[in-house]
Amino acid sequence: MLMLDAAVHLGPELELAVNRMDFFRLFKFLASNHGCEYFGLAEIPGDEQGVNLRHIHALHNFPDSWVGEAATKTFGCGGPIVHQLKRSTAPVVMDLRQDPSGLDDVGGPEAAIIIPLHTANRKRYGLVMFGDAEARMSENLALIALHASLIFQRYFEVILSLDSVCGLNDREIQIVIWTSEGKTSVEIAIILGLSEHTINSYIATVMRKLHVVNRVQMVASALRSGLIS
Amino acid sequence: MNSRQTSQSLRILLIDDDPAEFTLLKRKLAKAPGANIELKFVDAIGEAVDCVKAGGIDMVFLDNRLLPNNDFRETAPQLRTAGYVGPIGIISSDLSGSYFQLFQEFGADFRIGKEEIDGTAISFIVSEYTRDQLSENCAEDFL
């Protein structure tokens, strides 16, 4: 059981997280609890590409200005933060006054906590939290890294691992069946008493699981594999 | 941020029996970077149902305890029954009740503590629940 001074989310609530919003709340809490206003979690590509903060699995609360022009310098492959995440598996606190990140141009922070993370299926992620109090960050680095890895493990179990899980759950099968009957996302949402966003989220998950690219192929694949009849 | 935010305002309906929450949320929304949000307020689920039936609501923030109703398990389904298919977020000062774990079963999309709502949280919510999750290949014209 995690014990924090203000354990609003970690501990019992960690086990209750079920969607990306819940994980946004958990990571935001972790960041703010250690004096960081902003955080970002994204996959670290192995090649010469930078970090894609708009990827479906990325989570962050960065201002638009950081994801715009400054992103290339900060989160591109040549930036000090991404470079650190690619060369090391150890968490560090980076003094951004000595390693200019590009964020200084837009009124950015003085220090960053950089925590490399890994999924059970060998994908590399990085959590970066930006703040101004380097001393406090350094003192708590081990605890922050532990909490980050626990939240990330849960994120993997609940969200990331769905991409590689075989088979569909009951709700997903229900939605594929309605799609096979020609219902639109809005119509399925009304039938099931859910939002269109939720229906599209299920469809996107099913498509990733079945490795298909559109609804027709999704239904055909589900029929062929006997998931629906 | 997606194109919607830059091109037109997002209409959020706040359903809360405490008018002070409307004032507080308006102040927070004003601090949400890049968000162009129009906030509408009603204090009862009946009014909210009329409001969503009239159309034009992109997102709902629903207070968990809305007197004289019990909690979101009683109110959120009423919005769905009225044909509302936009995102519903349950807001509460206390999310510790075990029944919150059922929020998806009762038609809600997310939950958030009132003290957690700030400019960056609102920006994330808007971005998360207004972006297209499916590629153009998945447009329903393909059916």
Chain-wise SSE layout:
The complex is a heterodimer of chains A (229) and B (143).
Chain A: H1 12-16, H2 20-33, E1 36-43, E2 59-60, H3 64-67, H4 69-75, H5 80-87, E3 92-95, E4 111-118, E5 124-131, H6 134-139, H7 141-158, H8 170-180, H9 185-192, H10 196-210, H11 215-224
Antiparallel strand pairs in A: 1-2, 1-5, 3-4, 4-5
Helix pairs in contact in A: 2-7, 8-10, 8-11, 9-10, 10-11
Chain B: H1 3-7, E1 10-15, H2 19-30, E2 37-42, H3 45-54, E3 59-63, H4 72-81, E4 88-92, E5 110-113, H5 119-130
Parallel strand pairs in B: 1-2, 1-3, 3-4, 4-5
Q: Can you describe this structure?
A:
The complex is a heterodimer of chains A (229) and B (143). Chain A is α+β, with helices and mostly antiparallel strands and 229 residues long. Chain A folds into 2 domains: 12-163, 2-Layer Sandwich (Beta-Lactamase), CATH 3.30.450.80; 165-224, Winged helix-like DNA-binding domain superfamily/Winged helix DNA-binding domain (Arc Repressor Mutant, subunit A). Chain A has 11 helices and 5 strands; from the N terminus they run H-H-E-E-H-H-H-E-E-E-H-H-H-H-H-H. In chain A, strands 2-1-5-4-3 form a 5-stranded antiparallel β-sheet, sandwiched between helices. In chain A, helix 2 (20-33) packs antiparallel against helix 7 (141-158), helix 8 (170-180) crosses helix 11 and helix 9 packs across helix 10. The longest helix of chain A has 18 residues, at 141-158. Mean pLDDT of chain A is 85; it is low at 1-9. By secondary structure, chain B is of the alpha/beta class. Chain B has a single domain, classed as 3-Layer(aba) Sandwich (Rossmann fold). Chain B contains 5 helices and 5 strands, in the order H-E-H-E-H-E-H-E-E-H. Chain B is globular and about 45 Å long. The A-B interface holds A 8, 13, 16, 18-22, 24-25, 28-29, 37-38, 56, 61, 63-64, 179, 182, 184-186, 189-190, 193-198, 200-201, 203-204, 207, 213-216 and B 1, 33-34, 77, 80-81, 83, 85-89, 95, 100-101, 104, 107, 109-113, 116, 120-121, 123-125, 128-129, 132-135, 137-138, 140, 142-143.
